[in-house]
Each structure stands twice: as structure tokens, then as C-alpha cells.
TrEMBL record:
<protein>
    <recommendedName>
        <fullName>NAD(P)-binding protein</fullName>
    </recommendedName>
</protein>
<keyword id="KW-0560">Oxidoreductase</keyword>
<dbReference type="Pfam" id="PF00106">
    <property type="entry name" value="adh_short"/>
</dbReference>
<dbReference type="GO" id="GO:0016491">
    <property type="term" value="F:oxidoreductase activity"/>
</dbReference>
<keyword id="KW-0732">Signal</keyword>
<feature type="signal peptide">
    <location>
        <begin position="1"/>
        <end position="17"/>
    </location>
</feature>
<comment type="similarity">
    <text>Belongs to the short-chain dehydrogenases/reductases (SDR) family.</text>
</comment>
<dbReference type="InterPro" id="IPR036291">
    <property type="entry name" value="NAD(P)-bd_dom_sf"/>
</dbReference>
<keyword id="KW-0521">NADP</keyword>
<dbReference type="InterPro" id="IPR002347">
    <property type="entry name" value="SDR_fam"/>
</dbReference>
Amino acid sequence: MALLYGVYTALWQLVTSEGFPPKPGFEEKDVPDLSGKVYLVTGATGGIGFELAKILYSKNAKVYVAGRSEENGTTAIAKIKEEYPKSDGGAEFLQFDLSDLTTIKPAADKLLSQERRLDAVVHNAGVMGVPTSWRSAQGWDLQFGTNVVGPFVLQRHLQNILVETAKFAPKDSVRVVFVSSIGAHAAPAGGIDYENIEQKGIPPLSNIPGMDTWLKYAQSKCANTVMAKGYAEKYKDTGVIAVAPNPGNLRTDLMRHSFILRAFGWTFLHPPRYGGLTELYATLSPEIDQSKNGSVIIPWGRIGPMRSDIIENCNNGGGLKFWNWLEEHTEGF
């Protein structure tokens, strides 16, 4: 019953406010000068992350463009600098693979060796619609490993510098952004099915062709919202704010594993810039303060809803439980 309700909720949101949102209320023109500030955006060599990195750089921030491919990273940075030749900001590539936890600490150490502040981490990178037989280097379902486990490990390595930055940066300006999806509405009851995760990706509906991978994706994206709730509870006294935006339904490379979305997505998908604006709102909007800590954000920059059973689970300690569960399952990385 919870599953059917979740799928219904996701479809309803697709055809209403999250699928066809009003005009953005927070755009490039609303962003102040960001000179001296430092941001990390994962998956920023293309798509939504690239759009966000461009805006931050255009406002004179230093942006770490993170990704797996050095070639793609170098190309992306060249395009950013070419588009904004008058920027006094900086752009640097940071290479790691979220599906291989052994690559994360060396990359984080490199950033930490070069910076004394970090104003926001935008966990934007992710995969969608891949076969459930695909695994991360540590054996997780690739979607869960890339969308959840990798970002958690990265966040752990960068937590201290964010906390230190919050001590001198403007109040409520230091952010952690766990990028979610409209698919989060189709997650299992309560948002997280621990038994399913413990089996490292064996789906509960594997007998239905094509269904299992999308349910796994939904759970991974809902996990991002639960992570934001857990972070907000665990680190509520640090001054760092966590949010979980659904950037919107967008024409990006994320669709590369789905023939249906590639073939018919033009009917309801939007240009990636709009997703960049949703993430921009999550990263910089002054509307977000401690009262919004742990919030879900919907396109193109609004505080939005989440299924009542998922909110109830988080309010009863489910967010903190999941955060601690991830800590236990990523020891040594």
C-alpha cells in the first residue's frame, strides 16, 4: 500500500507543482558578489552542476568542479572561464569517483590542504536507471553507492572545515546540499528499507521487469532527503544548514540509461539551467535559515513537501538513525 501511494504521489507531483513550477524567484541577478568564498560542486562537469558552477564563478567565487574524468573537468572549466572572462573567481578540478570510496579521501585532503574555508558543498552528482546488477567498487547497488554512500563519506571528510567556516561566515550562509529528486516520493514506507539495503541492492520487486531499478533509484533519492534531516539534527548546533532539493525534471545526461526518458522527455523536461537555479536557491538564498534546516526544496527554488510517513519517521529519529547507520557502514573510508 505504501509503495502504491508513493508511486501515485510521485506521479501527482510530476503533473503539478514540481513538474510544472512557477517562474524562478531567485536568479543570477539576486546573487551578491561572492569574492573570497569557496564552493564544491560534485558532478559539475556537465548538466545541473555545471550550470551552478558557472553562476558561482561568475560572481567571483572559487569553485571546485568535481568529477570522475579529468578531461571532462578541464573542458568544463575552460568553458566556464571563456563565458565569464571578467570574473575574479577561481575554478579548479577535483577528481574522484563517488562509486569508489577509496578515491574520496585523497581528493578531500587535496582541497583541505589548499583552503581555509568552505562555504558550501553541493552533493549534485548521481546516477539513475542503471541495472541493479551494476555495483559500486565496495559492492553496493550502484545508485545507492553513488547517490548516498559516496556523498556521505565525502561529507564526513569535509565536515570540520564547514563547521570552522560557519564560525566566521555570515549567519546561515554555510550550507550542505544533498540533491534529491521527484522520485523520492516513490520510496518505501518511511523512506528507507534497511533490509533491502543490507542485501546490497537486491530489489523487493525484482520479478517485475524494469521496476526494480526505479524503486532503487527512488530509495536512494529519498535517502538524500533523510540525510538532510539527519544532518540537521546531528549538527544543529554548528551553524551549518542542510537542505535537500529536487532540482526539477531536466534534460541532462542523467537520462542516458533510460530510452523512454530520452525518447519522450522533451514533453515534460526543462533546460538544465533551471535545475541550476533550484540548487542556487538551496546554496545561497537568504530565505533559508535555521528554521528551514533539513528542509526539502522544490523547483525552481521553494520550500516543498515530502510524504507524511517519511517526515514522521525523520521526526521520530529516523534521520539521525540513518546518519549513524551510514557512519557504521563506511568505517575505514
